[in-house]
Amino acid sequence: MKKVLFMLLFSIALYAQNKTESFDSEKLAEKREITISLPPSYEKNTTKKYPFLVLLDGDFLFDPFYGALSYGSYWDDFPETIIVGIHQNHNDERVDDSEFENVQGIPTAKGAAFYEFIGQELLPYIEKKYRVAPFRMIAGLDTTAGFLNFFLYKEDPLFNAYICLNPELAPAMEKRIAEQLSATKSLVFYYLSTSEDEIKQLAEPIKMLNENIKKDNNPLVNYKFESFKGAGHYSQTLYAIPSALHQIFESYKPITSLEFSNKIALLPSGYVDYLEKKYNVLNEGLHLDVPIRINDFKAIEAAILKNNAYSELDQLAILADKHYPKSMLAEYELGLMYEKQEDYKKAMKRYQNASQMQEIGALTKTMMLEKYDLMLSKIAPKK
């Protein structure tokens, strides 16, 4: 238990590259503090790009999102993420920032200025200064959660993922959001949460919004709604945050034992196709260039062996050569294929080739030489 706690605290400490700076906004005609968190690999990996999350109510939402993301990225369930928290220090400020016109239900006065500050000043600033991937998320609570939906009203929405925690919806928003999601032509993640004990004034529009979104089955909308039992207006946030992040980053996760048992191992064929599709969804959906994990290669290899589909090891080798061309992985997979097909001479040659290449994962030069000797022993009796 102490070891697990130490690892958690250590992972969060590693993640800590936080800095608060004052942003001089022309749109707001004032300075606004923002806190930026950079992942631990940011300085080491100078070519890597990261998804980024804009947090409204950064004063109190920053820490719970930061903790969930740092813990998830430590176990490789979430990608490392740049977090940008906007400070809205006083209750009046967050209300003023979210101001909308009651008849048209669109941002007005300070709300319109805050909207332009995010879209025309903050986002360009972050994208120019930091290495960010073209995958943007935004999150807020009640008042600010309602406000962030205005970015969906654009024909080309500014964000790819929206996390709405108990939103206070503007007039007609429960219809307009659903209409915008129905018409979207690009992948959008939309998370909506509330609590069963929520006041009627907030609960009814949220319920209507959920029903309206569910009516349409746009395959480009990844939607999730949760109503938490036994949680209040604010306490539901701590349940919702990790759930929302798991929804958005579901495709990022490595192959789990459950996925292997319930999906991959049951396939009659197409194991390598499954792996390629999994990472295509990740790369195209989240706009992240993620190489196929070694453990995922091994999971597909295990499924192929389990179902005696040895010819697919050839496809797996081609994929391995694409992602890890200098490693022994591709030659090893070919050696394994020939071994299972009892073509020991070809297997021996592939294992010999592998022994001259870079080690990777659990594959070592010693292991390849042992495989070589084993193949040789199988050939010798025949001579």
Automatic annotation (TrEMBL):
Residue intervals passing through the bilayer: none
UniProt xrefs under Gene3D superfamilies: alpha/beta hydrolase (3.40.50.1820), Tetratricopeptide repeat domain (1.25.40.10)
Protein name: Alpha/beta hydrolase-fold protein
Organism this protein belongs to: Flavobacterium polysaccharolyticum
Keywords: Hydrolase, Signal, TPR repeat
Matching PROSITE patterns: TPR
A GO term, aspect molecular function: hydrolase activity
TPR repeats: 328-361
Signal peptide: 1-16
